[in-house]
Amino acid sequence: MYSEKVMDHFTHPRNVGEIENPDGVGEVGNAKCGDIMRMYLKIEGDVIEDVKFKTFGCGSAIASSSMATELIKGKTIEEAMALTNKAVAEALDGLPPVKMHCSVLAEQAIKSALLDYSKKHNVVIPGLEDLNFDDEDHHDLIEND
Ligand SMILES: [Zn+2]
Which of 16, 33, 36, 142 is catalytic? Predict the structure, then answer.
């Protein structure tokens, strides 16, 4: 049911913890699994120098947040904004369809942390304006193809 990569990131998650004085923090949750994900960003210029996360949730949520942090570490804000939940799931060699919403959480946690950064530092990040992190909208973000 779960790929080796999912199991690997679940049993040995990368970048777990928190960052002191982060430039941005985002917290999102979903009602389906009761997953709560908190993402911390250290941003230098427009590069994500460091990223850490704390996830209370199911194995897929932990694996998704671990993989997502690896995918955005050292990348630019623009590249992090372009990261979709689908890309996270693909990097994990797939998630079971019923667990795709857990990867959505990883995408939203990053965007939520970037939103926090943009507010605190008065930086405009294109694409963040009309994001809504209410739980009801989670399903709409899941691509079903
Ligand atoms: Zn979950």
Answer: 33
d(CA 110, CA 52): 10
Alpha carbon 6 to chain centroid, angstroms: 15
- Compute, in angstroms, the gap from residue 27 CA to the centroid of ligand 1: 15
- Indicate yes or no: pTM above 0.85: yes
With a CB cutoff of 8 Å and minimum separation 6, the contacts of 35 are 29, 55, 56, 57, 58, 61, 102, 105
In tens, the pLDDT along 116-133 reads 999 999 999 988 876 766
CA of 104 relative to ligand 1 center, distance in Å = 10
58 is known as an active-site residue: no
Q: Where in the chain are the domains?
A: 4-126
Tell me which residue of 91, 52, 50, 54 sits closest to 74, measured CA to CA: 50
Architecture of domain 4-126: Alpha-Beta Complex (3.90)
Instruction: Confirm whether 33 is a catalytic residue.
Output: yes
Share of the chain above pLDDT 70, in %: 89
Active-site residue, from 102, 105, 109, 113: 102
